[in-house]
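Try this one yourself first.
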């Protein structure tokens, strides 16, 4: 997407750079700062950042597999920080290319990335590559995130304090992984995906991720005192 789309960037599409402003804050559906759209929803950079917050889910999953690292004190921070920086640069590059190819006021009509390529030039060959990459990316993300929950349950609960239930600690003989916990998480995620609208899932995912990050960061500060 970046390599192909870079050839079709029009710098004038970046003017104005922030057409909806830098803000866009709401509290329980009530706009506090910035502009709002026709539906009363805040728009702007902060509003966009809140919606796309879920894009940073997954970097923390490296820490759930710290016990499998040869040198976790060195490898885990490198894995988290390096992957975070690389993906952040790629995120920014993709957005810069997309907004440089298609003006912001035309993006709703041509939302899909491979359609934007075709909108500017005849790049039909890139359509399959981008679509296949999207499927591969989503699949890998799902596998990584679905792996973390059973791993946390098996290690933190079963092996240390016995807080997990016996059914969730049941492991499969071939992989020594918590089979029951894996199935339970899979059924739960599939059910939400199948029956909830995508907008609701998006907001729930963002809320859950932000809440988890806040809890973990607060726990680290507390544990530096209680268990240095």
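Now uncover the answer:
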């Amino acid at each position: 997407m970046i390599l192909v789309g870079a050839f079709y960037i029009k710098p004038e599409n970046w003017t104005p750079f922030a057409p909806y402003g830098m803000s866009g804050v709401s509290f329980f559906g009530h706009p506090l700062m910035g502009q709002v759209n026709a539906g009363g929803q805040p728009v702007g950079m902060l509003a966009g950042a809140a919606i796309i917050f879920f894009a940073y889910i997954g970097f923390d999953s490296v820490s759930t597999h710290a016990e499998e690292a040869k040198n976790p004190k060195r490898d885990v921070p490198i894995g988290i920080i390096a992957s975070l920086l690389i993906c952040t640069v790629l995120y920014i590059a993709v957005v810069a290319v997309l907004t440089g190819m298609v003006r912001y006021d035309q993006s709703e009509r041509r939302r899909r990335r491979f359609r934007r390529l075709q909108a500017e030039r005849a790049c039909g060959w890139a359509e399959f590559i981008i679509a296949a990459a999207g499927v591969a990316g989503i699949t890998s993300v799902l596998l990584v995130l679905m792996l973390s929950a059973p791993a946390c349950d098996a290690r933190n609960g079963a092996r240390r304090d016995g807080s997990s239930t016996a059914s969730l600690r049941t492991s499969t003989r071939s992989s020594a992984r918590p089979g029951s916990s894996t199935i339970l998480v899979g059924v739960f995620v599939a059910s939400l995906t199948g029956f909830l609208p995508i907008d609701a899932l998006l907001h729930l995912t963002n809320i859950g991720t932000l809440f988890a990050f806040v809890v973990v960061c607060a726990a680290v500060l507390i544990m530096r005192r209680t268990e240095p």
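Discussion: DSSP finds nine helices and four strands in the chain. Residues 163-170 have pLDDT under 50 and may be disordered.
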